[in-house]
Amino acid sequence: MTTTYNSIKSLREALKPLRADKKIALVPTMGNLHQGHISLVKLAKQHADIVVVSIFVNPTQFGVGEDLDSYPRTLEADTEKLIEVEADYIFAPTVDEMYPIMPPPTQVLAGSISQMLCGKSRPTHFDGVGIVVTKLFNIVQPDVAIFGKKDYQQLAIIKQLVRDLSFDIQLIGGPIVRAEDGLALSSRNQYLTETERAAAPELHKAVQDLAVKLQSGRATSETALQSLIEESITAINAKGFKVDYLEVRNQDLTPITEFAGKQSWVIAVAAWLGKARLLDNQEVDI
Ligand SMILES: Nc1ncnc2c1ncn2[C@@H]1O[C@H](COP(=O)(O)OP(=O)(O)OP(=O)(O)O)[C@@H](O)[C@H]1O
Ligand SMILES: CC(C)(CO)[C@@H](O)C(=O)[O-]
Ligand code: BAL
To answer: Which residue in 154, 222, 230, 272 has the most C-beta neighbors within 10 A?
Structure first.
Protein backbone atom coordinates (compact mmCIF):
# COMPACT_ATOMS: atom_id res chain seq x y z
CA MET A 1 0.00 0.00 0.00
CA THR A 2 1.16 3.53 -0.77
CA THR A 3 0.33 6.16 1.85
CA THR A 4 0.73 9.90 1.42
CA TYR A 5 1.70 12.23 4.26
CA ASN A 6 1.76 16.01 4.10
CA SER A 7 3.02 16.68 7.60
CA ILE A 8 6.47 16.03 9.04
CA LYS A 9 4.96 14.81 12.30
CA SER A 10 2.71 12.19 10.71
CA LEU A 11 5.47 10.82 8.48
CA ARG A 12 7.82 10.60 11.47
CA GLU A 13 5.15 8.74 13.47
CA ALA A 14 4.58 6.28 10.65
CA LEU A 15 8.30 5.56 10.22
CA LYS A 16 9.20 5.36 13.93
CA PRO A 17 8.04 1.77 14.63
CA LEU A 18 9.63 0.53 11.41
CA ARG A 19 13.14 1.69 12.18
CA ALA A 20 14.02 -1.18 14.53
CA ASP A 21 14.06 -3.90 11.89
CA LYS A 22 13.43 -2.28 8.49
CA LYS A 23 15.85 -0.54 6.15
CA ILE A 24 14.43 2.75 4.88
CA ALA A 25 15.28 4.37 1.53
CA LEU A 26 14.53 7.94 0.49
CA VAL A 27 14.08 9.08 -3.12
CA PRO A 28 13.85 12.90 -3.16
CA THR A 29 12.01 14.42 -6.16
CA MET A 30 10.21 17.55 -7.27
CA GLY A 31 7.41 15.41 -8.74
CA ASN A 32 6.11 15.29 -12.32
CA LEU A 33 7.44 11.77 -12.31
CA HIS A 34 8.85 10.03 -15.37
CA GLN A 35 10.72 6.77 -15.96
CA GLY A 36 13.94 8.37 -14.64
CA HIS A 37 12.32 8.82 -11.23
CA ILE A 38 10.65 5.40 -11.38
CA SER A 39 14.04 3.77 -12.05
CA LEU A 40 15.29 5.36 -8.79
CA VAL A 41 12.31 3.96 -6.87
CA LYS A 42 13.03 0.50 -8.30
CA LEU A 43 16.69 0.86 -7.30
CA ALA A 44 15.59 1.95 -3.81
CA LYS A 45 13.46 -1.19 -3.47
CA GLN A 46 16.55 -3.32 -4.19
CA HIS A 47 18.40 -1.69 -1.28
CA ALA A 48 15.71 -1.23 1.38
CA ASP A 49 12.48 -2.67 2.84
CA ILE A 50 10.59 0.64 2.92
CA VAL A 51 10.73 3.30 0.20
CA VAL A 52 9.79 6.93 0.88
CA VAL A 53 9.45 9.22 -2.14
CA SER A 54 9.37 12.94 -1.40
CA ILE A 55 7.57 15.24 -3.80
CA PHE A 56 8.30 18.87 -3.11
CA VAL A 57 8.91 21.73 -5.54
CA ASN A 58 11.50 23.41 -3.38
CA PRO A 59 11.30 27.22 -3.71
CA THR A 60 14.72 27.86 -2.16
CA GLN A 61 16.54 26.24 -5.07
CA PHE A 62 14.92 28.43 -7.73
CA GLY A 63 16.60 31.72 -8.62
CA VAL A 64 14.81 35.00 -9.32
CA GLY A 65 13.15 34.80 -12.76
CA GLU A 66 13.34 30.97 -12.91
CA ASP A 67 10.37 28.64 -13.44
CA LEU A 68 9.17 28.13 -9.83
CA ASP A 69 5.58 29.18 -10.64
CA SER A 70 5.29 27.24 -13.89
CA TYR A 71 7.14 24.08 -12.73
CA PRO A 72 4.76 21.17 -13.46
CA ARG A 73 2.87 19.98 -10.37
CA THR A 74 1.07 16.68 -11.01
CA LEU A 75 0.59 15.03 -7.61
CA GLU A 76 -2.40 12.90 -8.64
CA ALA A 77 -0.65 11.33 -11.65
CA ASP A 78 2.56 10.97 -9.61
CA THR A 79 0.65 9.11 -6.89
CA GLU A 80 -0.74 6.65 -9.43
CA LYS A 81 2.75 5.94 -10.77
CA LEU A 82 4.07 5.39 -7.26
CA ILE A 83 1.19 3.04 -6.39
CA GLU A 84 1.99 1.06 -9.54
CA VAL A 85 5.68 0.71 -8.61
CA GLU A 86 4.70 -0.07 -4.99
CA ALA A 87 6.46 2.77 -3.19
CA ASP A 88 5.47 2.70 0.49
CA TYR A 89 5.22 6.35 1.47
CA ILE A 90 4.86 9.62 -0.38
CA PHE A 91 5.92 12.73 1.52
CA ALA A 92 4.30 15.75 -0.14
CA PRO A 93 4.59 18.71 2.24
CA THR A 94 3.47 22.28 1.62
CA VAL A 95 5.99 25.12 1.51
CA ASP A 96 4.78 26.31 4.96
CA GLU A 97 5.34 22.84 6.40
CA MET A 98 8.92 22.72 5.14
CA TYR A 99 9.78 26.37 5.75
CA PRO A 100 7.99 27.98 8.74
CA ILE A 101 9.96 31.10 7.86
CA MET A 102 10.60 31.88 4.22
CA PRO A 103 13.38 32.32 3.26
CA PRO A 104 14.79 30.15 6.06
CA PRO A 105 17.43 32.02 8.07
CA THR A 106 19.51 28.84 8.45
CA GLN A 107 21.65 27.96 5.46
CA VAL A 108 23.56 24.90 4.28
CA LEU A 109 26.31 26.06 1.93
CA ALA A 110 28.44 23.73 -0.16
CA GLY A 111 31.30 26.14 -0.97
CA SER A 112 33.27 26.16 -4.21
CA ILE A 113 31.71 23.00 -5.71
CA SER A 114 28.36 24.81 -5.77
CA GLN A 115 29.73 27.79 -7.71
CA MET A 116 31.15 25.91 -10.72
CA LEU A 117 29.32 24.34 -13.72
CA CYS A 118 25.55 24.87 -13.08
CA GLY A 119 26.43 27.13 -10.14
CA LYS A 120 27.88 29.77 -12.48
CA SER A 121 24.46 30.55 -13.95
CA ARG A 122 22.46 29.41 -10.88
CA PRO A 123 24.61 30.81 -8.02
CA THR A 124 22.09 30.15 -5.21
CA HIS A 125 20.63 26.91 -6.58
CA PHE A 126 22.75 24.41 -4.65
CA ASP A 127 22.33 26.34 -1.38
CA GLY A 128 18.60 25.65 -1.75
CA VAL A 129 19.27 22.00 -2.57
CA GLY A 130 21.57 21.82 0.48
CA ILE A 131 18.95 22.97 2.95
CA VAL A 132 16.06 20.96 1.55
CA VAL A 133 18.06 17.72 1.31
CA THR A 134 19.39 18.25 4.85
CA LYS A 135 15.81 18.71 6.07
CA LEU A 136 14.59 15.63 4.18
CA PHE A 137 17.45 13.56 5.62
CA ASN A 138 16.57 14.77 9.14
CA ILE A 139 12.86 14.14 8.66
CA VAL A 140 13.08 10.69 7.08
CA GLN A 141 16.41 9.54 8.59
CA PRO A 142 16.87 7.04 5.79
CA ASP A 143 19.48 4.29 5.69
CA VAL A 144 19.84 4.78 1.95
CA ALA A 145 19.20 7.77 -0.32
CA ILE A 146 18.99 7.57 -4.10
CA PHE A 147 19.78 10.42 -6.51
CA GLY A 148 20.03 10.37 -10.30
CA LYS A 149 23.33 10.81 -12.11
CA LYS A 150 21.54 13.09 -14.58
CA ASP A 151 22.10 15.81 -11.96
CA TYR A 152 25.77 14.88 -11.62
CA GLN A 153 26.89 18.00 -9.76
CA GLN A 154 23.97 17.70 -7.34
CA LEU A 155 25.03 14.14 -6.50
CA ALA A 156 28.63 15.30 -5.92
CA ILE A 157 27.39 18.06 -3.60
CA ILE A 158 25.21 15.64 -1.66
CA LYS A 159 28.18 13.26 -1.26
CA GLN A 160 30.06 16.19 0.28
CA LEU A 161 27.05 17.05 2.49
CA VAL A 162 26.79 13.48 3.82
CA ARG A 163 30.52 13.43 4.57
CA ASP A 164 30.71 16.90 6.17
CA LEU A 165 27.52 16.69 8.27
CA SER A 166 28.16 13.04 9.24
CA PHE A 167 24.84 11.72 7.96
CA ASP A 168 24.74 7.96 8.47
CA ILE A 169 23.27 7.40 5.03
CA GLN A 170 24.41 5.25 2.11
CA LEU A 171 24.20 7.29 -1.08
CA ILE A 172 23.44 5.58 -4.37
CA GLY A 173 23.61 7.25 -7.78
CA GLY A 174 21.12 5.89 -10.33
CA PRO A 175 22.12 5.74 -14.02
CA ILE A 176 20.63 8.28 -16.47
CA VAL A 177 17.42 7.04 -18.07
CA ARG A 178 17.04 8.22 -21.67
CA ALA A 179 14.33 8.35 -24.30
CA GLU A 180 14.88 5.96 -27.23
CA ASP A 181 16.53 8.75 -29.22
CA GLY A 182 19.05 9.40 -26.42
CA LEU A 183 17.58 12.51 -24.77
CA ALA A 184 17.95 12.29 -20.97
CA LEU A 185 14.46 12.22 -19.43
CA SER A 186 13.69 15.39 -17.48
CA SER A 187 10.53 17.13 -16.32
CA ARG A 188 11.66 20.26 -18.10
CA ASN A 189 11.72 18.47 -21.50
CA GLN A 190 8.04 19.34 -21.72
CA TYR A 191 9.02 23.00 -22.22
CA LEU A 192 10.34 21.98 -25.68
CA THR A 193 8.28 22.63 -28.82
CA GLU A 194 7.89 19.73 -31.28
CA THR A 195 10.75 21.02 -33.44
CA GLU A 196 13.01 21.55 -30.42
CA ARG A 197 12.18 18.07 -29.10
CA ALA A 198 13.27 16.61 -32.45
CA ALA A 199 16.62 18.47 -32.19
CA ALA A 200 17.18 17.75 -28.47
CA PRO A 201 18.99 14.36 -28.83
CA GLU A 202 21.83 16.21 -30.63
CA LEU A 203 23.10 17.24 -27.19
CA HIS A 204 23.67 13.63 -26.15
CA LYS A 205 25.17 12.82 -29.57
CA ALA A 206 27.69 15.65 -29.20
CA VAL A 207 28.66 14.42 -25.74
CA GLN A 208 29.10 10.89 -27.11
CA ASP A 209 31.27 12.23 -29.98
CA LEU A 210 33.47 14.07 -27.50
CA ALA A 211 33.69 10.94 -25.33
CA VAL A 212 34.97 8.94 -28.33
CA LYS A 213 37.66 11.58 -28.99
CA LEU A 214 38.75 11.53 -25.34
CA GLN A 215 38.82 7.75 -25.28
CA SER A 216 41.03 7.68 -28.35
CA GLY A 217 43.64 9.63 -26.38
CA ARG A 218 43.35 12.97 -28.17
CA ALA A 219 43.33 15.09 -24.99
CA THR A 220 47.07 14.93 -24.42
CA SER A 221 47.30 18.36 -22.75
CA GLU A 222 45.18 21.16 -21.35
CA THR A 223 45.35 22.95 -24.73
CA ALA A 224 44.36 19.85 -26.70
CA LEU A 225 41.42 19.21 -24.33
CA GLN A 226 40.27 22.81 -24.56
CA SER A 227 40.25 22.74 -28.35
CA LEU A 228 38.18 19.49 -28.37
CA ILE A 229 35.74 21.15 -25.94
CA GLU A 230 35.46 24.24 -28.14
CA GLU A 231 34.82 22.04 -31.22
CA SER A 232 31.94 20.37 -29.34
CA ILE A 233 30.45 23.67 -28.17
CA THR A 234 30.50 24.98 -31.75
CA ALA A 235 28.85 21.77 -33.00
CA ILE A 236 26.10 21.96 -30.34
CA ASN A 237 25.40 25.66 -30.91
CA ALA A 238 25.18 24.97 -34.67
CA LYS A 239 22.22 22.66 -33.93
CA GLY A 240 20.23 25.53 -32.38
CA PHE A 241 21.28 25.21 -28.73
CA LYS A 242 22.92 27.89 -26.63
CA VAL A 243 25.56 26.13 -24.55
CA ASP A 244 25.67 27.38 -20.96
CA TYR A 245 28.79 25.31 -20.19
CA LEU A 246 30.55 22.23 -21.42
CA GLU A 247 33.41 21.06 -19.26
CA VAL A 248 35.48 17.94 -18.75
CA ARG A 249 36.52 17.27 -15.17
CA ASN A 250 37.67 14.46 -12.96
CA GLN A 251 34.68 12.42 -11.76
CA ASP A 252 34.82 14.13 -8.35
CA LEU A 253 34.49 17.43 -10.32
CA THR A 254 38.01 18.64 -9.51
CA PRO A 255 39.86 20.18 -12.50
CA ILE A 256 41.94 17.82 -14.63
CA THR A 257 45.69 18.22 -14.08
CA GLU A 258 46.91 14.79 -15.26
CA PHE A 259 46.65 13.82 -18.91
CA ALA A 260 48.83 10.70 -19.01
CA GLY A 261 47.89 7.21 -17.79
CA LYS A 262 44.53 5.87 -16.62
CA GLN A 263 41.95 8.64 -16.06
CA SER A 264 38.32 8.80 -14.88
CA TRP A 265 36.73 11.90 -16.31
CA VAL A 266 33.22 13.22 -16.79
CA ILE A 267 31.88 15.39 -19.59
CA ALA A 268 29.23 17.74 -18.14
CA VAL A 269 27.04 20.00 -20.24
CA ALA A 270 24.10 22.36 -19.84
CA ALA A 271 22.52 23.97 -22.87
CA TRP A 272 19.44 26.03 -23.56
CA LEU A 273 17.06 24.87 -26.26
CA GLY A 274 14.17 27.33 -26.45
CA LYS A 275 12.75 27.64 -22.93
CA ALA A 276 14.39 24.44 -21.63
CA ARG A 277 17.81 24.28 -20.03
CA LEU A 278 18.91 20.70 -20.70
CA LEU A 279 21.56 18.88 -18.66
CA ASP A 280 23.59 15.89 -19.74
CA ASN A 281 26.82 14.18 -18.81
CA GLN A 282 28.89 11.13 -19.54
CA GLU A 283 31.58 9.42 -17.51
CA VAL A 284 34.63 8.55 -19.57
CA ASP A 285 37.27 6.11 -18.40
CA ILE A 286 40.50 6.47 -20.32
N1 LIG B 1 16.60 10.79 -16.67
C2 LIG B 1 16.91 10.56 -15.40
N3 LIG B 1 17.60 9.46 -15.08
C4 LIG B 1 17.94 9.21 -13.78
N5 LIG B 1 17.60 10.00 -12.76
C6 LIG B 1 16.91 11.11 -13.03
C7 LIG B 1 16.51 11.45 -14.36
N8 LIG B 1 15.82 12.61 -14.31
C9 LIG B 1 15.78 13.00 -13.03
N10 LIG B 1 16.43 12.11 -12.25
C11 LIG B 1 16.66 12.19 -10.82
O12 LIG B 1 15.44 12.27 -10.14
C13 LIG B 1 15.61 13.02 -8.94
C14 LIG B 1 14.56 14.07 -8.88
O15 LIG B 1 14.79 14.97 -9.95
P16 LIG B 1 13.74 16.05 -10.43
O17 LIG B 1 12.46 15.82 -9.73
O18 LIG B 1 14.35 17.40 -10.40
O19 LIG B 1 13.49 15.59 -11.93
P20 LIG B 1 13.99 16.17 -13.25
O21 LIG B 1 13.29 15.46 -14.33
O22 LIG B 1 15.49 16.17 -13.20
O23 LIG B 1 13.46 17.64 -13.24
P24 LIG B 1 14.12 18.91 -13.85
O25 LIG B 1 13.69 18.92 -15.26
O26 LIG B 1 13.51 19.92 -12.99
O27 LIG B 1 15.62 18.84 -13.66
C28 LIG B 1 17.04 13.59 -8.99
O29 LIG B 1 17.88 12.77 -8.19
C30 LIG B 1 17.38 13.47 -10.44
O31 LIG B 1 18.77 13.36 -10.68
C1 LIG C 1 17.10 16.71 -4.81
C2 LIG C 1 15.88 17.59 -5.05
C3 LIG C 1 14.62 16.77 -4.88
C4 LIG C 1 15.88 18.67 -3.98
O5 LIG C 1 14.78 19.51 -4.12
C6 LIG C 1 15.94 18.26 -6.43
O7 LIG C 1 17.02 19.10 -6.56
C8 LIG C 1 15.83 17.29 -7.55
O9 LIG C 1 14.70 16.92 -7.86
O10 LIG C 1 16.84 16.89 -8.14
N1 BAL D 1 16.81 18.16 -10.84
C2 BAL D 1 17.28 19.51 -10.63
C3 BAL D 1 16.30 20.36 -9.94
C4 BAL D 1 16.36 21.78 -10.36
O5 BAL D 1 16.83 22.08 -11.46
O6 BAL D 1 15.91 22.64 -9.60
So the answer is: 154
